[in-house]
């Protein structure tokens, strides 16, 4: 009889502990909503720090920092300079119809060719390196419509060292029709 009492008491205590533990754990969907809400708020704050350029002729877009003074769109509508006013900085985004003779596939040994996955999921090629005492980056891709897109950077070593992460973030923001 004493054994039955101890056994029943133990069962009751385990159930109470289990119920208390379950109540102490927050609802996963509420926690996930809070995390998603926090991520969305951070993304919105980040978005507020960027300008957006859309090219209607070739249908591409790119984000660049608010602090950059961009030039006007070119007369032929193929793109624009994303950074003007500093002779040590040349950053442009443009597109043109693919022409095998104009493609950058013959590049200097000082530049490395690597693949870059853009935020849109599109894969692009990136040439990057140091040439003529300047950092050079060319992110390029060709769409199924035979349009070649380029984000070109030619900057001083000092500018590159201070802005490497930003330059890459801008490159990854390129979006165009596949």
Short key terms for the protein model shown above:
Protein Transport Mog1p, Chain A; 3 helices; two-stranded antiparallel ribbon; alpha+beta; 178 residues
What would you say this structure looks like, in words?
The structure is a single chain. By secondary structure, the chain is of the alpha+beta class. The protein has a single domain, classed as Mog1/PsbP, alpha/beta/alpha sandwich (Protein Transport Mog1p, Chain A). It is 33% helix and 34% strand. The protein has three helices and eight strands, in the order H-H-E-E-E-E-E-E-E-E-H. It has helices spanning 2-24, 28-47, 157-172; strands spanning 50-55, 60-65, 79-83, 89-97, 111-117, 123-131, 134-142, 147-155. The strands form two sheets. A six-stranded antiparallel β-sheet has the order 3-4-8-7-6-5, covered by helices on one side. It has a two-stranded antiparallel ribbon with strand order 1-2.
């Amino acid at each position: 009889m004493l054994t039955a009492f101890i056994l029943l008491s133990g069962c009751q205590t385990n159930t109470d502990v289990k119920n208390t533990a379950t109540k102490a754990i927050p609802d996963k969907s509420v926690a996930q909503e809070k995390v998603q809400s926090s991520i969305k708020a951070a993304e919105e704050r980040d978005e507020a720090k960027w300008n957006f350029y859309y090219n209607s002729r070739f249908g591409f877009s790119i984000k660049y920092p608010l602090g950059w003074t961009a030039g006007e769109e070119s007369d032929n509508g193929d793109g624009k300079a994303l950074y003007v006013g500093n002779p040590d900085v040349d950053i442009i985004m443009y597109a043109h119809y693919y022409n095998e003779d104009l493609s950058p596939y013959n590049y200097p040994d000082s530049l490395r060719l690597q693949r870059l996955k853009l935020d849109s999921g599109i894969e692009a090629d990136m040439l990057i390196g140091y040439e003529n005492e300047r950092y050079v980056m060319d992110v390029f891709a060709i769409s199924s419509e035979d349009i070649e897109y380029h984000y070109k950077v030619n900057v001083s070593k000092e500018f590159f060292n201070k802005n490497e992460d930003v330059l890459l973030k801008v490159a990854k923001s390129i979006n165009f029709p596949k």
